[in-house]
Amino acid sequence: MEEPLNLVLFSGTDDKLNAAAVLAAGAAALGRPVNVFLQYWALEAFRSDRIAADHGLAPEAGVAGRKAVDALRAAGQASWAETLRQAKELGGVDIEACSLSMDLLHLEPGDLDPLVDGVEGVTAFYVAAGGGPIVFI
Amino acid sequence: MLETPATPATPAITRTIDARGSFCPGPLMELIRAIRESQVGDVLAIWSSDRGSKIDIPRWVEKAGHRLVTLETRDGYDEIVVEKLR
Question: Can you give the pTM of this predicted structure?
């Protein structure tokens, strides 16, 4: 069994979510299990009524960064949600919502995009991570 | 008189996937999907304009246990030919 990639997603901006989606897809391509734990603003971005919306960029992007991201998107770059869908098709990618963040944002499982497999607490995430490194984005 | 052909330099391509215009990791995702749909011994060509593909796809092919047949840079894209081995 390959060592899992464990991603904690906190930020809900499109650039960070895209970076995370690419990491997840690459690991899935190599047959590594991927555990994704959605907290705070990343979880909010997975609301089914908002997942396709513009989630903005990290502050360091600035005006030039915004233009560069828009240009790549116009040239046909897949959205982070689409990249995650492809990663899930490969198999081994589990996306879980943090139960505390669900409470914080007053969300129910039915409010989330089907990309999200379920809701769990931090302990369940650590158990899935199996003592491997955790990447926080 | 029958001639015995030498081992062909490039086996016949079973399927070509045009992933030009798709960005990393899109071309690899498309190749993996196509390989899963293929039979052992099939030869797949993927066209990619993503600059990472000519590095990433051969690495993936080796790790996944398939065979890199050829890698050729063309006008604005790379053609990577892979034989499914398992």
Answer: 0.89
